[in-house]
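Following up on my earlier thread - several people asked me to post the actual chain instead of describing it. Fair enough. Here it is, all 83 residues.
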Amino acid sequence: MAPCFLTPVQKSFRVETCSELLAICSATPDNVLSQIITDDETWIHHWDPDTKQESMQWKHVNSPLPRKFRTQPLAGQVMATIF
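Reply from S.P.:
Thanks for posting it. Predicted structure:
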């Protein structure tokens, strides 16, 4: 989250956390990277669209056009978390 959108409580928590990290860096400068864990998460959207070939139907020349219902573009979503 961008710092300009943080509340005062969130900003003070961020300052405390950074101060603790600086203290760890000062105490053990050679081993500091092995003590940091980072992560990222993202939403992955998935759906199974019909191709034009799959949606075709056999019909007589004089028969009315088949009705097609609008499908939702997103059938589901999954959150992926990476550490």
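The chain has two helices and two strands. That should answer part of your original question.
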